[in-house]
Each structure stands twice: as C-alpha cells, then as structure tokens.
Amino acid sequence: MPTVTFIGHAGVSVHARAFHLLADPWLAPTGAFIGAWHQYPRNDHLDVDRLLAADWVAVSHEHLDHFDPWVIGRLPRRTRILIPRYPGPAFRERMAEAAGSRQVIEIEPWEKFPLDNRGSWITVIPELSPMCHDAAFLIVADGRGFLHCNDARLTAAQARRAKHLAGGRLDLMALQTSGASWHPICYEYPAEEMAKVSMDKRVSKLRAAQRLVRQTQPELAVPFAGPPCFLDGEVDRLNWVLGQRDGAFCDPEVSTEWLREHLPRQRWECFKPGDTVDLDTGEIVRDPVSAEFSFADDERPAYLKQYAEDRKELIEGVLAEYPEPGPDLFARFTAHFEHLGSLSDYFLRQIAMLVRFEITGPNGGVWDVDFSPEGLTVGEASPDARPHYRITTAGRWLDSVLTGRMAWEDLLISFRLSLYRDPDVYNDYLVGLLKHANAPALNAVEAYETGRDESERITVEWAGGCYDIPRYCPHAGEDLSVGAVIRDGQVHCLAHNFAFDLATGSCVNARAANLTSRRVS
C-alpha cells in the first residue's frame, strides 16, 4: 500500500489507505471520437463496478480518450471530480454537463489539493503555453510520489519541480510515448514521405520521454497512454500505424525496449490493463487476462478482427446517431466561421491563410475560408484561388461540430477526414482557433506569446560557429539548454518537434515566432 493499477491507455486506479482515485479512465465499450478509437489492448474484462467505486476521479483534459462521459455518468453521486483550471471554459462546461449533480472541482496549477487527512494530495501541472490545454497529475499517496504525465509535454524544469515537490523522489512516473495525432496519418503524403515523417515523429517522442526521465530519475518509469486501434471500415486501414518496426505510433513494449537501451540504468516496466504495482515494495502483479495479449505484428490481424466483430453493433449504433445534414449546412458553416473570425485579431494575423473545406455527402460542397489579417471571409471555392490547407470530411461529421455536439479537435482526432497543406508547414494558430473557439482561451495565448521575456540566453555551437539563442523556445517555453538538439544548422526543440534555422531564426516546419538567433563567432 499504496498501489497503482493500470486500467488501459492513460487510465490508472490508485488505492491508498484512506481513498481510491481514478485518473483519466477510458472504459467506454463504444470507444471514443465517433467510435473511431478503441482501447488497445482491450480492457473490457476489468471489473467496472469495482473500478468506478471511487472517492475521486481526476481527468486531465477534454480529449475523449481521457475524459470519458460513459465513465462520468456511471460514477457514484458521492464521487468528486477533479480537473485542471484552464484559461478557457470549454473543458469545465463539458465536464459539468457530463457530471450532472456530482461535484466538479477545478485545481489551480501547482496547488496541493488534499485527498485525505493523512497528508496525501494531488496537483496539476499544465503545459507552459496556454495553446495546449493538457496537464500532468502529481499524486502523493501515503507518502509515495506518482507523476502521471498523460498527454502533457512537460518541460525538464517542470518535471524537476514535480520531483522536488514530491519530497525529492518519484516512486512512479508514467509517460505517453505514442503521440496519436492526426499528423501525419491523415495527410495525403506519398508512401516514402509518410514513412519518413512517421519515423521522425516516433523517434522524437521517444527522445522527449528519455529526456524527462533522465532529468527526474524515478524509481520506476512506465511508457503508457496509447496507442489506440481502429475497428470500423472507414478507419481500420490506419492500423498500419501499430507496426512495431515502422508504425507511426509506438506501443508500450516497443517504447520500453527502446528506452531501456538508451537509459539502461533506469528501471522500466510495461503494463497492460489490470496490472498492479505496489509503490512501497515495487512488487508487480500481472493481470491473467492481459498476460495472454501480445503486441506482436503477426498476432494483431486476428486480434483486431475478433475485436471488431465483438464491437460491430456498438460502433454501428454510434454512427447511426449522426444523421446527414439538411440544406442549410453551408449557411450554418458560414455563421460558424464568421463567429470564429470575430474572436481574436491576433489569431487571424498569425493564421493568414486560405483554407478549403471539401464536404462530402448530401448538401456538401467545396467552400473556402480566408483567414486574413483584414478579416475572415467565407464563400464558395474559386477555381482561381490556391488554398494553403485543405480539409476533406463528410457533412454529417461537420454538422456535429456546427451544432456543438463535438469540438473541432474531436473531429480531427477521430481521423474521419483527410488533410493536405502546401507548403507543408504546421500552423498551430489555425488548430488553436478551431480547438479553443472561445475568447478567454485565445486571449490567454496572445498574452503569453506577446509577454515572453527572452533576456535569458544561451550559446550553442554548429559547424564551427557559435550562436546566441534564447534559453526558452518561442513556441511553448521548453528549456532549450536541455530540451533541444542541434543538427543540420537547426535547433530542434524536443517538446513539440519545432525546428528553427540558426542563421535566420525562422521556424522551418511550423508557424511560430522567430528564434532571434544570431551568430557571435
């Protein structure tokens, strides 16, 4: 005592002497994101009634593989729900709707929130930039420290601070190493380029985990939080990403093997649903059902075929809840984007691009949204216009965004769309406007980015030259003195994989502020 049971994906169950806490439990038999994502390996053999008999449920952010309304709606009325306080209201409002009469408590960053009267507590550690509403949990249960990173990309300084706050020791640290995002797998890349981009992102994610663990040296480090699998006909072609040798997403076994090789003195373990570790003794008890599962490539096709058959009716039920849109779809699309365009002049200046939406199915069409610094306009696509970005999706998925049933980011993460960009440069502001869609959150990003202090600087070397650069990344505040690598004349920030040209300071693969680098010798 205390014990931590891994319940699949990023979910854990913490049992202490005086309380039972769940963090980021994803148990819905319908999966998540319009039934596209499913737990891998499956966790439906677990005793759900016993798991949900919790005193506390902590949910890190609003992605539906962490915030599971199916779970929230089945909790006892006495269970209290803990969430981070973010700059915008979206997560709080979605959680309040799912929670009903259950108490929802927002925790301020780094605030020690008591879990019992014996000295146990929890705090939230959000990413530095308010562009990203992700947060880690630091839990101290009966004197044992557990850093639950879920999807949050913490800086090295944040991780070290967490260890200090826990008394100078982390008994357990769990890190996401799969990075299951819509880039690159939803993009229209040639096969060779898709393979290269996938491998680059995979290695970058592993290096980021390696860096954090090297900085904190926990007693036990655990790769977790994905990847998911895909079971219905529209998205099951994407299961190539699970390939152990060259897939875009790393499973926990592959991650553990890679990290053991690169940090051989660190203790690493791979856990499956139902596996439990005692934080006092370090003893591990393996779940007998999950022990039969293997991530091996040759066993995956049969496993996923049976899994898909078992969930076929449930998935069909989810998809049936999304009817085709009516003839007013374009009018509502126009009103929606005119509203978004009124929320932040700062974001319009940073986006500054033409985005084309190809909407398939009844009452669809091809529509352009011009995110201009002078103002946003919407219209039928012009054959003479060259879009910088193209989003193709079905009208019934778009309709659910326009009605508020799901957020833009839910649609993006569902992978029920295809994407193209020219030039192939990530625009964080376009994604930020779509996913936040509220003025307080957007204003917080503007305040953060325009108020940065770049006075603390470091010197880096490349090809015989020395360059003066800011210590902290202009994108999201990563400490570049420990969180970056220099190669090919570029600074590669490991937190979000942004790359900056040392000679000019320009970000070469994303829309971001200039690094303000200069050669000094």
From TrEMBL:
Keyword Metal-binding: yes
Domain Rieske: 472-521
Domain of life from the UniProt record: Bacteria
Keywords: 2Fe-2S, Iron, Iron-sulfur, Metal-binding
Protein name: MBL fold metallo-hydrolase
Provenance organism: Actinomadura nitritigenes
